[in-house]
Amino acid sequence: MTASTDATRDYCVQGAGLGLRRALLGPLADAQPSAVGFLEVAPENWIGLGGTRKRLFEKLTERYDFVTHGLSLSLGSPAPLDMGFVSRVREFLDHHRIRYYSEHLSYCSDDGHLYDLMPIPYTDEAVRYVADRIRRVQDALERRIAVENVSCYATPDAQMSEIEFLNAVVEEADCDLLLDLNNIYVNSVNFRFDPFAYLDAIPGERIAYAHIAGHHEEAEDLRVDTHGADVIDPVWSLLDHAYARYGVFPTLLERDFNIPPLNELLGEVETIRGIQARHQPANTAVTSAGLSG
Question: Which domain, by its residues, includes 147?
Answer without folding.
Answer: 36-279
